[in-house]
Amino acid sequence: xxxxxxxxxxPGDGIGDEVMSACRQVLSACADGLSYDTFDAGAACYQRTGxxxxxEVMSACRxxxxxxxxAMGMPDIRYPDGTEISPQLDLRFxxxxxxxxxxxxxxxxxxxxxxxxxxxxxxxxxxxESTEGLFASQGKGVVRGDSEAEDFxxxxxxxxxxxxxxxxxxxxxxxxxGFPGQVTCVDKANVFRSMAFFRKIFDETxxxxxxxxxxxxxxxxxxxxxxxxxxxxxxxVTENMFGDILSDLGAGLMGGMGMAPSADIGDDHAVFQPCxxxxxxxxxxxxxxxxxxxxxxxxxxxxxxxxxxxxxxxxAAARITSAVDAAMAQPENLPVELxxxxxxxKITSAVLRELE
Length: 356
Ligand code: ATP
Known about the structure:
Blueprint: E1 5-12, H1 16-30, E2 34-38, H2 43-49, H3 55-63, E3 66-71, H4 87-94, E4 99-104, E5 124-129, E6 142-144, E7 148-150, H5 157-176, E8 182-187, H6 193-207, E9 213-218, H7 219-228, E10 235-238, H8 240-253, E11 263-265, E12 270-272, H9 291-308, H10 311-328, H11 344-355
Parallel strand pairs: 1-2, 1-3, 3-12, 5-10, 8-9, 8-10
Antiparallel strand pairs: 4-5, 4-11, 6-7, 11-12
Helix pairs in contact: 1-9, 1-11, 5-6, 7-8, 9-10, 10-11
The chain binds adenosine-5'-triphosphate.
């Protein structure tokens, strides 16, 4: 009997609890050999205890085999400097989760914002650097009197090399599944020295990975192309803030935030969570779309499978993905978020039914 893999579960704030409970039901139905410990962290935890990510929770996360997170932060609960509570960012910095993986795969059968009359396959991955860039300035910017404010953007060789290695490895893995094997560096190298440096390191990594084709796009052009011809994209890799913005655009292509899964991956740890936030406007109403969290859990199973030689988890991930696809193809399961009537419970039971 294999030792179970430990999952640290952080439901967090707002709709975090609702989508996590749906996700746990799906995991219990198809993945064995995992044990779960649930911890309190986030804005409500900060309000209650004065800590958003208590030290014992951080150390449990460090010990766990993977971290599954709901959503954190509430607009009206803030640190004294006025910024929002975002322990998910602390986890990224603490565990050096440099690769923010944001798959963009709109599902068939959904009313999507983009006309695609030829039904071309849109299936690309945006990789957002998640430990430096403009976010390195978080909590360190300066406000001078009431006249000006400044933040900084940090790019390091170490941070960029590991990011680009990850991007090329992912493109190679996707190429084995029939994707083009193409990585595009998204930057603003025509304006900023930091971005020219980012691109230089990208080009060095590209030169060491000639089996994969490499290209560049300025971030403004990338936004345009994500809407104009997203079917031509394979793997995009970019700076933290650009990735933050473009991943919401990617979620838009999928129909809404509740459809967009994500993983923040480092060399030793990883956090899996939906792209969306705590959505206080709909929290407690039972209408949150749990699909993004369920698909993030599938990403977690795939990652664990590769690290622990557990092919059963890869198979469970594939079953979850197919079950979500099949459930979403039925008009009665159209999420409230996309203009339908299916609430959290209905979507969850539809996915569970497809898993049977
Ligand atoms: P954050 O800054 O923490 O990323 P945000 O301000 O971008 O959060 P979200 O919480 O992601 O905001 O929500 C943006 C919008 O999308 C809100 O109107 C919210 O109701 C909606 N939304 C987000 N997640 C879901 C979901 N799972 N199901 C339904 N609607 C959602």
